[in-house]
Amino acid sequence: MAPTDINTARKFSVAPMLDWTDRHCRYFYRLMSKNVLLYTEMVTTGAIIFGKGDYLGFNQEEHPVALQLGGSNAEDMARCAEQAQALGYDEVNINVGCPSDRVKNGSFGACLMAEPDVVAASVQQMQKAVDIPVTVKSRIGIDDMDEYEDLTRFIKTVADAGCEHFIVHARKAWLQGLSPKENREIPPLKYERVYQLKQEFPQLHISINGGIKTLSDVKTHLDYTDGVMMGREVYSNPWILTQVEAELFNLQTSFSREDIVTLMIPYVERHIAGGGRAWHVIRHMLGLYQGEPASRIWRRYLSENAIKPGTQASVLNEAVDAMMTTRAKLKSREEYLS
């Protein structure tokens, strides 16, 4: 199947999540959804330009896929955007939302909301360098700069530089006193502020992010915005992507969770053959049976066995067998008691 057009895919995207949405995770997600837009973990310009790792590698099956880039030097941002385009990424996204100290000390992430001209300069330089879309992911505000007027000033400045697509996390970020985890939970969600933003800037593509857990929530937000980004809920319950396919993209899926396991086995085998460990891939699959009978057995079996050095891809089938055995025992017990 040909990759979905990125403008269609923006209706639903999976958030960039540090240490989670790596290339193995994205490959796994793509087996359950051909249409959603996937994002990499944030990669800094310093890592790309000076690092020795393969920070930009991805599987061709991941399309449409966007690189999330962290940085504030316009020339470096443009240089990295060029590399991303050359490798085949469908979009480059600028991180203006991460509140961690490491990001703040590097002068990128949420602290850049206080410097819209810096973000605008990066957008301009990047768009001169590439043909793929350059987008921005932000918060609704930071610290005491959290009035609606502060947000619109940021959006207008960056939009005037040429950015047409913003993903807005509907919480402010406290850059002093709260950890990244607390910044995902403590500042209140203000979805109405993102709705208002779409009304004020109807020409822009505005996606909403933050605290979204159900397909019902997604559909409600789509009444007021152009797209929805979901993060932690997808990671804990990846099967929700099949519901997204059916309900948002009108594509019914006929495969089972066991079919996904079967499809992942050769991928794990290739990773092991290349010198990797099974756990690098399998750790992203623990939520596959979330909400299903005996799903705890699946998670426990993999957590205890897949993490061991030398583990082979067959551990996935072993985990399925353990889960199915427990299900059969539970069913027999229920029938005995009925």
Q: How would you classify the quaternary structure?
A: single chain
The biggest sheet, with number of strands, parallel, antiparallel or mixed sense and barrel status, is: 8 strands, parallel, barrel
The radius of gyration is: 21 Å
Count of the separate structural domains: 2
Termini separation comes to: 48 Å
Q: Proportion of β residues?
A: 5-15%
| CATH class descriptor name of the largest domain | Alpha Beta
What structural class should be given to the helix and strand makeup? alpha/beta
Mean pLDDT: 93
| Estimated helix fraction | 40-55%
CATH topology call of the largest domain:
TIM Barrel
Name the poorly predicted regions. none
> What is the tally of beta strands?
8
Tally of helical segments: 16
The CATH H-level homologous superfamily of the largest domain: Aldolase class I
Order of helices and strands: HEHEHEHEHHEHEHHEHEHHHHHH
| Shape field | globular
Cross-sheet strand order for the largest sheet: 1-2-3-4-5-6-7-8
Based on the coordinates given, report the CATH architecture of the largest domain.
Answer: Alpha-Beta Barrel
